[in-house]
Amino acid sequence: MALTTHVSQVDNTQTPYKLDPDQTLRASQALLKHVQAELKRLQESGGKRNLLATEGSDEEDQEDDAQPIWLTLGTKQYITDKHRLKPSKIPVPHSLNSNENSTICLITTDPQRAAKNVVADPTFPSSLASRITRIIGFSKLLARYKSYEQKRQLLSEHDVFLADERIISRLPKALGKVFYKGTAKRPIPINMAPKDASKDKSKRVLKDEREAVVAGPAVIAKEIEKALNSVPVSLSPGYNIAVRVGLDSFSPDQLKDNIAVAATAIIEKHVVSGWKNVKSIHIKSPTSVALPIWLAEDLWMEKPTGPAIETPGEKIKDSEAETTGIKRKRKQNTTRGAQSGERKKTRLADEKAKDKEDVAARKARLSAQKASAFEAD
């Protein structure tokens, strides 16, 4: 059965490709069945926890007993040419953070008292306030969590980390590889700045009123809900994007809905040239093989239609690319490399001898022309 599904050009997506819902549902059922069978086998055999798994790694469960389900999307061209440590957010129908027992750590700009007052406000939703177990400012984060062990402890104490967008670019240096080695618990950015602060210059925040640097309780609560109901997408140089789209506690229909929404949003937002640049889409768990749900008929693109992204080590001039294609031709006069040998040396020697004969013949013809010209004079 072909996994590439064609649709009419009249479709709203304006693309001849889309995911097959039946194929996605079958793959989801098979994967969840395998995960449950593997979990049951480990429980019956008294399987021990993997001691090599580190906190924050992609293989660690997001919750105590829940295993993540990954969506892996392969492309034909490079996705990006640099690491993007600020993840983007894709809303999904079924949240991965719906567990009321999961805890949230909120990292804010200084002073942290402004965010604490917002969370303690009576209008702030109590269901969210009970889950936010720690609010820490950026300066206190640097002062309290300096060593590797302290950062590991902070990572293990909370399930979800949210951070103000204004300091998200400074967190990789502050938190280090403990958080950013994997993508499981990287801080998710939320917009905590007041919306009218930059527009209305007459309402600037005074030094004595520094607690007004964050938005109101309703705005921040909405941003937190939006982040919890989304899946973060972290991009890195390569041909593959991996995103957590579900848990083993999901039903096949819930997993299918999340896969369809996440795959479409990733392709529209992050993949240059859209579906034409997609090579494959798979789903997998940490203990299973990747199950295909979409495979492209063409494994490469004939001509890029979007902005070019150079692969590291592959810099070709435009004039050279037009004449030689992607591969760079070897110089004709070189004797180095895999093509060097007796046959090539003989051919080069014959070419040099032929060139010498041509030069001698041209000199002889020129001398004869000069002699005939002098005789005529």
Task: Please describe what this structure looks like.
The protein has 377 residues and is an alpha/beta fold. It has 11 helices and 12 strands. The protein has helices at residues 21-44, 113-119, 126-129, 138-144, 148-157, 171-175, 177-180, 217-228, 252-270, 318-324, 342-376, and strands spanning 5-6, 17-18, 68-75, 84-91, 104-108, 132-137, 160-164, 188-190, 230-235, 240-247, 278-284, 291-295. The strands form 4 sheets. It has a 4-stranded antiparallel sheet with strand order 10-3-11-12. Strands 6-5-7-8 form a 4-stranded parallel sheet. α1 packs across α9. The longest helix is centred in the last third of the chain and has 35 residues, at 342-376. The chain starts with a strand and ends with a helix. The relative contact order is 0.18.
